[in-house]
Amino acid sequence: MTVYLLLGLTLGFAASVQPGPFIAYLIAQTLSGGWRRTLPAAAAPLLSDGPIAVLALVVLTHIPPAFVHWLRVLGGGFLLFLAYGAARSWRRLDPAAPQVAPAERSFVRAATVNFLNPGTYIGWSLVLGPLVLKGWHEAPARGVAMVASFYGTMIATNAAVILLFGLARGLGPRVNRALIGASAVGLAGLGFYQLWLGFRPG
Q1: DSSP per residue over 63-128, as a string?
Q2: Exposure of 137 by Cβ count < 10 A (0-12 exposed, 13-18 middle, 19+ buried)?
Q3: DSSP code of 179?
Q4: Cβ contact 82:18 at 8 Å
Q5: Which of 57, 121, 137, 189 has the fewest Cβ atoms surrounding its Cβ within 10 A?
Q6: 192 CB contacts (<8 Å, ≥6 apart)?
Q7: Are the CB atoms for 80 and 146 separated by under 8 Å?
Q8: Full-prediction pTM beyond 0.90?
């Protein structure tokens, strides 16, 4: 159980601090409208990810087990690719970059941004889905624990980013850079773990 809680925590943290459309939206909303109006949007993935997760899990349960191994290998490679991108972002982060044009302050708008983010589909198909199914087959509570840990950590980290940029605008970019660096290490570790699961026999 602990392993799946830690996997969910690490993946949720890494997903939240990676540069992308959703985090850029949250930061832009915080900078333009304040943290109080933006904070509810931290939970938007709960609305947007549901259909994606169900679709990914249905597909994954109807494919041969051997194919799941190759999905884990692809997922490991994808995580290492994200780790490389995060490491580059950590080295080259421009403090002005997150300040994109403001959008409407809306929970639904935030969910729409996340729903249209390709990373959500890739993450559930190649990384999160296979791990959740593996935990579920071992014991349903493990799969549930991983999903709960993933979204709990993601929402908490989203909220922390919003508060950091809302309450400490000058400190925000430096803290965000540190979080991106930490996510690069976590993603690399998870990438190698996925590759190990994919290549090991059985």
Answers
A1: S-HHHHHHHHHHHHHHHHHHHHHHHHHHHH--TTTT-PPP----HHHHHHHHHT-HHHHHIIIIII
A2: exposed
A3: H
A4: yes
A5: 137
A6: 76, 80
A7: no
A8: no
